[in-house]
Amino acid sequence: MDWGELADATVLFPSFSGTEDGALPDLPTERPVWTVLDPANDTGLKAQMANLQGDIACSNPGFFVRGEGVIVDATATVEAGAYLIGPCYIGPRAT
């Protein structure tokens, strides 16, 4: 099926410049962007998350963590009472 521009990552995510801080997903350019969501895809988000290294580097004012693979940048803000279920990545200056 020809999805045209609808399947293009640059059309769906125009604010991604590729120069952002932190880890960015490697979005496919040769196939529809949503193939990155397939958990069986060896280049999908699940596989990309498994390759990230890190831990919870910000202060914990009372948020809850469940599961493995939770990475929070030291400059991120996570509200008290939030539930972070791994795998989860919260990058620099996220609020």
How would you characterize this protein structure?
There is one protein chain. The chain has helices spanning 9-12, 45-50; strands spanning 64-66, 70-72, 83-85, 88-90. The protein is of the alpha/beta class and 95 residues long. It has two domains: 1-51, no CATH class; 53-95, no CATH class. The strands form two sheets. A two-stranded parallel ribbon has the order 1-3. The longest helix is centred in the middle third of the chain and has 6 residues, at 45-50. The protein is elongated. The termini are far apart. The mean pLDDT is 87.
Short descriptors:
single chain, 95 residues, alpha/beta, 2 domains, two-stranded parallel ribbon, 2 helices, 4 strands, 11% helix
Helix amount, in percent? 10-25%
The succession of helices and strands, N to C, reads HHEEEE
Largest sheet: 2 strands, parallel
Rg computed from alpha carbons, rounded to a whole number of angstroms: 15 Å
Side-by-side strand order of the widest sheet: 1-3
The domain tally reads: 2
- The computed structural class is alpha/beta
- What does the overall shape look like? elongated
Distance between the termini: 39 Å
- Please count the beta strands (DSSP E, at least 2 residues each): 4
| Mean residue pLDDT | 87
* Poorly predicted parts: none
Strand content range: 5-15%
Number of helices: 2
